[in-house]
Amino acid sequence: MKPLWHILRACRQPRPGFVLALLTGLFLWACLDDVPRDNPLDPALGNHNFLLNGTVQTYYAPRSPIADALVWLEPGTHITRTAADGAFRIENIAAGLYTVYCSAEGYASDSVQVNLTANKQLNFNLNGLPRFVSRTVTTHHVARWFPLDDVYYLETAAQVTDADGLADIKQVICEIPYSAFRDTLDPELNAGHFKKTFFTQDLNISSLHELLGQPVYFIAEDNPGAQLRTEGVYAARILEKTAALTSPVELQAVPADSIHFRWELNPPAFDHTLQIDVYAINAGIVTSVKTIDDIPAGSTDWLYRSDLPAGDYFWTVTIRDAFGNTSQSKEQVFQIQ
């Protein structure tokens, strides 16, 4: 810009009004040039001066840092991961309205909307998701003398864990879309384990065979309401064959020190084992007293060195395949004298 004296010299006879106007304009220009630029929307700032930082921690106290969590802004390309202490830092962000997202493996994602007009600190407390350790669906067949119809039922079981602790698991649900069936499993004494038996009539079906090839889903829910749904689990088969017990039967008396169990069975073509269960009958009350499992396939007898007291008993033989499906024989009664 040319100096004032140079401008005045160019005007051979400057008028007083012109000089006054010129001086006033120069004064205002100098004042405006010194206006503080603290308006974040001022384009002269470049709109890339802001900082967003904070921490990502677990949901419940005492809150622990979550390392390697992903934090990013939309719209835009700003993205970072948290350090070992859960801290994150994003610089050179333009002023504006953003959605800040946060996610970490094993945790429910979270997001918050911010209107960024200054540096901002933002903390996330992520809810740990429930996770299935195992889930099983098995079929079971029980032959009986009376009523004449055999019993079939479905047994469902699941083991669930949670990043926030087993106490955070609210419930586990079993769902079968084929029959519009949905119910909750019962928690077991062992924390994180859930199990429930459903009979044919419970499942909105007329035969358990209808469920072969149909997916069974498990849904775990924690206290904050996060849910995890598994892929479909399928029943492998329904066992129809049962062993025919031949000895001891019909209140036959056996020695107190040994019992020779015998049965007939055409062995199934698939891998399986056999199991003998012995029950005591005392004043009409039935109590399980002995289980002999992992009897090899093809066996038709088993000698048991008994330590049972005198009394009335009954026994059964169960076929168990590699998936846990079973078929139990009709019972037979014997006496120990």
From TrEMBL:
Q: GO terms for molecular function, please?
A: carbohydrate binding; carboxypeptidase activity
| UniProt keyword terms in alphabetical order | Carboxypeptidase, Hydrolase, Protease
Please name the InterPro entries in this protein's record: Carb-bd-like_fold, Ig-like_fold
One Pfam match: CarboxypepD_reg
The name of this protein is Carboxypeptidase regulatory-like domain-containing protein
